[in-house]
Write a structure and sequence with these properties.
Blueprint: E1 6-15, H1 30-34, H2 40-58, E2 69-82, E3 88-101, E4 106-118, H3 119-134, H4 147-157, H5 160-165, E5 171-175, E6 182-189, E7 193-198, H6 203-209, E8 214-219, E9 227-231, H7 235-238, H8 241-258, H9 260-263, E10 272-273, H10 291-310, H11 314-323
Parallel strand pairs: 4-5
Antiparallel strand pairs: 1-2, 2-3, 3-4, 5-9, 6-7, 6-10, 7-8, 8-9
Helix pairs in contact: 2-8, 3-10
């Protein structure tokens, strides 16, 4: 297979208080989890209000009432067609932000990425890694772990489909790891905030590195813990302040919902910081989220990827991956 033997199809749907997940949407995604059940519309409305309030708090210049901006979110769903056979598989889902300036009536391009969801990643972490370690005396990682997923992602970002829809590389914003220690530095960015350095690399970061993404950790003003920013190129200079704020406000809101022990903690990260998912000294948002359900669904959707993508196309994928730079 040649590198261009994969083709990608991109679809987008607005994430707002009326959002309802399509049948094809990965139900483990953060946004789909919020959009189900009795409290779905209230969940969505509250989350969007949190995003807008946080955005205006960070974009405070020429914004005396704190209501100049609002954020619009699109869910970007990417499907991959292997070797042009019409055998399409849902690949990844990310979020795209737009910023609405109510003072100038402009709609400003934001960042693509933010959240990151992938069937193949579910397979790697929830199926392959788990089964590999059932046979091991101590934790280890399979050979070539994440290689295929990383090459698929890089192939997508360099594809014509990506370039037709997006004019800058993606930025993925994730929670920091609870098994690492982060040390505060003297480096400070006017929007991203104070930078932290990690004592070691996590498996997730190594996985994202194979996707062509490097990582830096920043704690924005009035946050309580650093966020992990995965990016290509120069995070501090390739994106405008408003673009960066759109990602911070969106992903910090999601993290407050999903990781309140870290991002809604009542104590601020100090000079040396280790996240603690058992921290009881935190506040809960008024948004219903089922973390255990999401864990179970990750396994189910990893099995789905195994059955419908990995096994039927194994020979093709292995040949492509071996020949891919």
């Amino acid at each position: 297979m040649k590198n261009n033997d994969f083709s990608f199809t991109i679809k987008r749907i607005r994430f707002d208080e009326h959002y309802q997940p399509a049948d094809s949407t990965r139900i483990t995604t953060n946004f789909a989890n919020l959009a189900r059940g009795e409290w779905r519309q209230q969940n969505l409305r509250n989350a969007l209000n949190m995003i807008n309030n946080r955005f205006n708090a960070l974009a405070q210049w020429d914004n005396p009432k704190g209501d100049r901006y609002s954020v619009e979110l699109d869910i970007i769903s990417v499907a991959v067609d292997i070797a042009g056979k019409g055998d399409v598989f849902p690949s990844i889902e990310v979020l795209k932000t737009h910023i609405v300036d109510h003072k100038t009536n402009e709609r400003i391009e934001g960042i693509v990425g933010n959240n990151f969801s992938s069937y193949v990643r579910d397979y790697d972490f929830s199926v392959l890694l788990r089964e590999h370690n059932k046979q091991q005396a101590q934790f280890s990682v399979p050979d070539n772990f994440g290689e295929l997923h990383g090459k698929l992602f890089k192939n997508f970002v360099s594809s014509d489909a990506y370039k037709q829809h997006f004019n800058k590389p993606p930025v993925i914003c994730l929670s920091v790891s609870d098994n690492k220690v982060y040390r505060r530095t003297e480096n400070q960015h006017p929007v991203l905030g104070v930078e932290y350095l990690a004592n070691e690399s996590s498996l997730t970061e190594q996985y994202f590195n194979k996707m062509g993404l490097q990582v830096r950790y920043f704690m924005p003003a009035n946050s309580v813990a650093p966020l992990a920013f995965h990016f290509v190129g120069d995070l501090l200079n390739d994106y405008s302040n408003l673009e960066l704020i759109s990602t911070i406000s969106t992903m910090e809101t999601f993290q407050k919902i999903y990781r309140p022990e870290i991002y809604n903690a009542n104590a601020v990260a100090g000079k040396s910081y280790q996240p603690n998912l058992k921290n009881q000294d935190h506040s809960i948002t008024q948004i219903v989220y089922d973390r255990e359900e999401r864990r179970k669904l990750a396994i189910a959707q990893g099995r789905f990827a195994e059955e419908h993508f990995i096994k039927p196309h194994r020979a093709t994928l292995e040949q492509w991956s071996a020949n891919c730079d």
